[in-house]
Amino acid sequence: MGLARLAALHGVATSYQPSAHRTLQVPDDTVVAVLAALGVDARTPDAVRTALEAHETAARRLLPATLVSWTGPSGPEPPPAVAGLPPGTRLRVETEQGPAVEWEALPAGPPPDDPTPGAAPQAGAAPPPPAPREGWAELPLGVHRLGVRTPEGREDSATLVVAPARVPQAPGRTFGFMVQLYSLLSRRSWGMGDLGDLAELAAWSGRSLGVGFVQINPLHAAVPGTPTDPSPYRPSSRRFPDPVHLRVEDVPEYAHVPRADRARIDDLLDRAATLRDGVLRKGELIDRDAVWQLKKQALELVRSVPLGPGRRAAYCDFLAEQGTVLEDHATWCALAEVHGPDWHAWPAELRDDPRSAAVERARDELYDRVDLHGWLAWLTDTQLAAAQSAAREAGMPVGIVHDLAVGVHPGGADAWAQQDAYARGMSVGAPPDAFNALGQDWGLPPWRPDVLAAGGYAPFRGLLRGLLRNAGALRIDHVMGLFRLWWIPEGREPTEGTYVRYDAEAMLAVLALEAHLAGASVIGEDLGTVEPGVRDALAERGVSGTSVLWFERDWAGTGEPLPPESWRENCLATATTHDLPSTAARLTGEHVVLRHRLGLLTRPLEEERAEAAVEVADWLSYLARLGLLPEGAGDEEGEIRAVYRFLLRTPARMAGIWLPDAVGDRRPQNLPGTWDQYPNWRLPVADAEGRPVTLEELAASPRLHDLVAAFRTRTAPPGARLS
Q1: What is the Cα gyration radius of the chain?
Q2: What are phi and psi of 213, to 5 degrees?
Q3: 288 within some domain
Q4: Is the pLDDT at 435 greater than 80, yes or no?
Q5: What catalytic activity is recorded (predicted)?
Q6: What are the distances in angstroms from CA 279 to CA 17, 184, 185, 581, 691?
């Protein structure tokens, strides 16, 4: 009983529901291990009693570690936690903008020494202190420091997040492309898609097609290795992008590489062309490591060109703005070149504290390499900004939609630099469910909710600010993680984990604040098992959801396809995602055959194919009844167009076209449950025959233009060219 109470006080679940009407108990040893990762000893009954007493002592504080004040029609609203402060308590808010705001909490009604409410004050009398509501009304948006002092002299302080009630919304209805950037090669790519290709895609699709956004995969910095993990969802750092995405020729200093080095640059360009042709013409897989080796050599040659005064000033401003966060990231990159990509295997004196004397000495010794990685981060940031500028200049109301992965690699830069913020010995995953009886372990260390709260959510805020600086919108992978995450103790199976709860109100407040400051909307990936109330809470704060056509059925009633008018408005509506079969594969059943070939089916092939065929036939029949399939049954291109025509019938504010669908690609970019069996994250966009398609060929594709035609006539943003 004591363990359950202690767990509840720290947001650790002792039971969970994998499905309706079914509750499973979490093993006690799992609860004990998770509490230990939160700094709470619960190994014995005596330890549990001691921990409960310590929590009761901490609970006597006047304020929690972090408070949220949502901005209403009349300004910021007082947080509920301050309602119980004694009358006469002085409140002082040190705002992040500089000025302080101070006032006194008064009891309800007139002060007892004022017998004539509403009477004018006597001449020369000091004005009465502002009422509690008036003090809050003066507070600006931001993350501030609140201090309180009671009449008895008790003092306390807390972080105060003053946030807008909702994140910004995409202007009007719009449609866009969704693509994994590495898969989109042009005739100028170095073996994988890059930021130059992204800018070209945005400029062309915005100007010529009326596209309102381009959603891409996370561009987070990867953990270097041989081979590098190609998954964009298990990065070294979410705070900085990976320079592998740079277009080398777009770096201004490239044009001024000394004549003596031009031959080396030309040789690298030739080798890059060989990589590109291997992918586009010879069926080779995208080789991120090979691309980076060439780009790294070329960029080091470019770096030999001195920056002009203006460029030097811009670089210095970037370094100053990013501060120790970038310094730590660049230091990790430099140390990884010497000691390997997993900091757990580094010399002991370099592991535990980025601020240690040993790390400072190593940073000084590796100064040139540290500066190189800072320079690469700056270049990547400038090209990300250029891509967003190209999108906006092309008339896109949203522009580039960036993606935030749910976590980071345990051996990478963020886990090293922010060790206190991550739970040691824990991994994030998913519990068993109807689709995966064994659960999932994603190998990502979770943030500690207690450390986040104590630090005013600074790591989360900094992460969001970095991602939003060059984004028109942000997609958050597994957005349910703002509320709770499934923690798995090291060495245990995913079935032996438990949920740990986060302060969703504080997380949403920081998200709303940073999105407001950036003028960007937010999309939450809320597919799969979602606990009750989460979608409502997200919608209340203006966070859009994600709705995939094949999953939208009347599950509580007939089980039939959900009518378009019943879809939610505040969502990104699409036909598929990077983790799901392409529309062509689903229509033809090729996704079932692929899973059978790889040994992933749990039932006989014919059973799986029959079930998939019934699902598709059900949807196609419904689309035909709605008049969305004039081409008739059996026309694959027409059926794909019908699927996307249906999305236009819904009230969804955003509709996403999976770019490979536009050319009939049958291969998924990622097949969950596989590693070496399938080339996840290494395939280029291809046509129905599996032939890779370049960006230039996409722009001229009749099939793509036929698909987009319906969107151009229905949802083109104001000012877009339609010819």
Answers
A1: 28
A2: -160, 160
A3: yes
A4: no
A5: Transfers a segment of a (1->4)-alpha-D-glucan to a new position in an acceptor, which may be glucose or a (1->4)-alpha-D-glucan
A6: 46, 11, 9, 22, 10
Span 33-46, mean pLDDT?
A: 96
Q: Within a domain: residue 157?
A: no
pLDDT in tens, 486-542: 999 999 999 999 999 999 999 999 999 999 999 999 999 999 888 999 999 999 999
Tokens describing residue 232: 């964009």
Angle in degrees, CA 241, 380, 511, rounded to 5: 45
CA dist 214 and 205 (Å) reads 9
* Most distant pair of Cα atoms in the chain: their distance: 92
Q: How many CA atoms lie within 13 Å of 307's alpha carbon, on the beta-carbon side? A: 13
What single letter denotes the amino acid at residue 431? P
Domain range holding 239? Answer: 174-713
Which own/partner pairs from 640-645 qualify as long-range (CB within 8 Å, at least 24 positions apart)? 640/583, 640/584, 640/587, 640/664, 640/707, 641/706, 641/707, 641/710, 643/549, 643/575, 643/583, 643/619, 644/575, 644/707, 644/710, 644/711, 645/710
Q: How far apart are CA 686 and CA 690, in angstroms?
A: 5
Give residue for tokens 């004694």: 86
CATH of the domain at 591: 3.20.20.80
Q: Where are the beta strands (DSSP E) in 445-514?
A: 473-476, 484-489, 498-501
Runs of H (alpha helix) within 494-604: 504-518, 534-540, 583-588, 590-597
Structure tokens, 296: 């790294």
Q: Does residue 92 belong to any structural domain of this protein?
A: no
- Check pLDDT > 50 for residue 129: no
Instruction: Tell me the per-residue pLDDT of 56-67, one tens digit each, with 9 for 90 and over.
Output: 888 889 999 999
Q: Please determine, for residue 144, whether its predicted confidence score (pLDDT) is greater than 80.
A: yes
Residues 6+ apart with CB under 8 A from 255: none
CA angle (207, 208, 210) in 5-degree steps: 70
Q: List, in order, residues 6 or more apart from 569 with CB less than 8 Å away.
A: 651, 652, 653
Count structural domains, the chain: 1
Neighbours of 131 (CB within 10 A): 14
Per DSSP, the three-state class of 402 is: strand
The per-residue pLDDT of the chain, averaged, comes to 93
**Cβ count within 10 A of residue 172:** 11
Q: Yes or no: say if 503 and 161 are a contact pair by the CB < 8 Å rule.
A: no
Predicted structure pTM score: 0.93
In sequence order, the 6+-apart residues with CB closer than 8 A to the CB of 447 are: 421, 422, 423, 459, 460, 502
Contact 286, 684 (CB under 8 A): yes
> What is the rounded distance in angstroms from the CA atom of residue 685 to the CA atom of residue 588?
18
H or E element in which residue 160 lies: strand 155-164
Cis peptide leading into residue 563 (ω within 30°): no
The percent of residues in the chain predicted with pLDDT above 90, rounded, is: 84
